[in-house]
Each structure stands twice: as C-alpha cells, then as structure tokens.
Write a structure and sequence with these properties.
Number of strands: 6
Strand order of the largest sheet: 3-2-1-4
Number of helices: 5
Distance between the termini: 34 Å
Helix content: 25-40%
Shape: globular
Strand content: 5-15%
Mean pLDDT: 88
Largest sheet: 4 strands, mixed
Low-confidence stretches: 161-175
Length: 175
C-alpha cells in the first residue's frame, strides 16, 4: 500500500511517498523523472511513520544538525540502480564524486554513463545524495531537481550561506 504527504523545505515542497509504511520516494515538485501523482497512493498522515521520522531527519539536515540519514528506505529499482544508490549513500556530506569514480567503486570503470542514468532515476533525492555527483572536471552536471538547486544543496553542505525562507508554523522552512 502506498501513501504520500507533502512537506515544505528550504528548497521547495517535497513529496514523501511510503510503500507499506517504509519511505520509498522523496520528490521535488518540478523534478525530472518524477512519477505521476496518481502513483503516490492516498494521502498519509504526516505524523505517522515513516513520515514523522523522515520529516524530523530532514528538519535536522536543513538545520545543519544531521549529516547522515538513518530512516529506513524501500528502494525499488534494478540491481544495478540499487548498487549505484548504495554508492551514493557512501559519499560523505559536503563532498562530491564523479560518475567515473562511482563506476570505479562499483568495479566497472567503463560504466560512467550507466551510473549517470541510475543516478537520474534516484527516487530518494537528498536522502540518497545524488546531488553530490559531478562531472569528471568537477562541473555541475545533470540533476533532476535542476542545477541551481544542486548548487544550493552543495553550497549548503559545504557551509555556504543559508538564506531564510518564510514558512508556515510547523513546516521545514527553517532558513
């Protein structure tokens, strides 16, 4: 059974999706490869698991208090995609890796393009930090949430300036 809820963040609304009570999706509003809304299931209670847990972890992340997420994830994808996503979770907070470095870590140095495709299909952006992947020359390349948002997330993790966004009481617009 799938359920979803929408929360605010300093980088815009985030749709959280749970499959059988386990987080299976985190999507930005204008994200490339975002599944259709009807695939998210019915509305879920933001105070129930896993939504309450991930909301608290995201709040702590955006406040600069959390670097590694521990919320349980239900990752649906091919075995190769799941191996790429596992490598993404190994990239330390505030650091980047190239597609080639990820391919090397997977033991297949010629798989940079396949790594890029799997990276683009990541269903749990921010938590599975696909924004930490850059081109071989360090340039910002493809990001489902847009390059400007990728730049903002990387700047944030590197201790860059955080701008305050106005938000409603109880939402995640902390900056």
């Amino acid at each position: 059974m799938k359920q979803h809820t929408v929360i605010d963040s300093p980088y815009g609304p985030l749709t959280l999706v749970a499959t059988d009570g386990v987080l299976s999706g985190l999507y930005m509003t204008d994200q490339r490869h975002r599944p259709p809304e009807e695939s998210f299931g019915g509305p879920g209670d933001p105070d129930d698991t896993p939504f309450a847990e991930v909301t608290e972890e995201l709040r702590a992340y955006f406040a600069g208090e959390l670097k590694d997420f521990s919320v349980q994830l239900h990752l649906q994808g091919t075995p190769f995609q799941r191996s790429v996503w596992a490598q993404l979770r190994r990239i330390p907070y505030g650091e980047t890796r190239s597609y080639g470095q990820l391919a090397d870590a997977l033991g297949n140095p010629h798989a940079s393009r396949a790594v890029g495709l799997a990276n683009g299909k990541n269903p749990l952006g921010i938590i599975v930090p696909c924004h930490r992947v850059v081109g071989a020359d360090g340039s910002l390349t493809g990001y489902g949430g847009g390059l400007e948002r990728k730049r903002q997330l990387l700047d944030f993790e590197r201790g860059g300036r955080r701008e305050r966004r106005e938000g409603r009481e109880g939402d995640l617009a902390l900056f």
